[in-house]
C-alpha cells in the first residue's frame, strides 16, 4: 500500500465512498495503516473499540455497524441530491459514539451521540476543506439521523421543526434507512415502512 499523507488519504477516501460498490472493503484495509490512528482519522479508528448493545446491534462494534451502513448507502447514493454529503454523513454518522458510550444499569448506551457527532464532524472535515456548505450539510445529517426513531415512536426527543430548518427531510430519511439496515438481522420491509411513516409525519407537521 502506498504511503499516504493526511490530505491524500482524505481525497482517496472521498473517491472510494463515491465510486465503490462496497466501500467497506477499502476501509477495512486502510484502517490497518498507522495514519488511521492519527488525528483526525483516529476519530474513525475509535469506532473499532466502541461496543454497542447486542440487542440493537448484534453485528458488534460501531465500526462493524458503520461498514454495513456505508455499503447500504452505496446502493442508494444515486437517490441523494448531494451524493458527496450523503456518503460522508453515512461514514461519520456515529462518530459521536466513542465519546458518549456508557454502561448504564448493565446496558450499553450512547445518549446524545448525534449531537456530539455533529460537532465532531465539523472538527474532522475542517481539517481538509473550507467548503462550509458541504460541512454544514454533513453535520446536519449526522445531527438529525436519530430522528427517524424518535419521530416514528413519538419519543420526546423528536424535534421535527428544528430538523426541517437545518436538513433536507428526504436526505435524513435516506440516511436513516441505511442506518437502520446497517445491522444484522433487520427486517427490510419493516424499516422501509418506518421511513415512510417518518416522511409522512414530517410533511404533515
TrEMBL record:
It comes from the Bacteria. Keywords: Nucleotide-binding. InterPro entries: HD/PDEase_dom (IPR003607), HD_domain (IPR006674), HDIG_dom (IPR006675), tRNA_CCA-adding_enzyme (IPR050124). Coiled coil: none annotated. GO terms for molecular function: nucleotide binding. It comes from Clostridium cylindrosporum DSM 605. Pfam families: HD (PF01966). This is Putative domain HDIG-containing protein. Residues 58-193 form the HD/PDEase domain.
Amino acid at each position: 500500500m502506498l504511503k499516504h499523507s493526511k490530505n491524500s488519504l482524505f481525497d482517496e477516501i472521498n473517491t472510494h465512498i463515491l465510486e465503490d460498490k462496497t466501500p467497506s472493503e477499502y476501509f477495512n484495509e486502510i484502517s490497518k495503516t498507522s495514519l488511521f490512528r492519527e488525528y483526525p482519522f483516529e476519530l474513525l479508528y475509535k469506532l473499532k473499540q466502541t461496543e454497542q448493545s447486542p440487542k440493537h446491534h448484534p453485528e458488534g462494534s460501531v465500526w462493524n455497524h458503520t461498514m454495513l451502513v456505508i455499503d447500504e448507502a452505496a446502493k442508494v447514493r444515486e437517490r441523494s441530491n448531494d451524493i458527496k454529503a450523503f456518503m460522508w454523513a453515512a461514514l461519520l454518522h456515529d462518530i459521536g459514539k466513542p465519546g458518549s458510550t456508557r454502561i448504564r444499569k448493565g446496558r450499553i448506551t450512547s445518549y446524545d451521540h448525534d449531537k456530539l457527532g455533529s460537532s465532531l464532524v465539523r472538527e474532522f472535515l475542517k481539517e481538509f476543506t473550507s467548503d462550509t456548505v458541504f460541512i454544514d450539510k454533513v453535520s446536519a445529517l449526522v445531527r438529525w439521523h436519530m430522528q427517524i426513531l424518535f419521530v416514528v415512536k413519538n419519543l420526546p426527543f423528536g424535534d421535527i421543526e428544528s430538523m426541517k430548518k437545518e436538513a433536507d427531510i428526504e436526505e435524513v430519511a435516506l440516511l436513516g434507512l441505511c442506518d437502520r439496515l446497517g445491522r444484522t438481522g433487520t427486517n427490510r420491509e419493516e424499516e422501509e415502512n418506518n421511513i415512510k411513516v417518518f416522511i409522512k409525519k414530517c410533511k404533515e407537521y
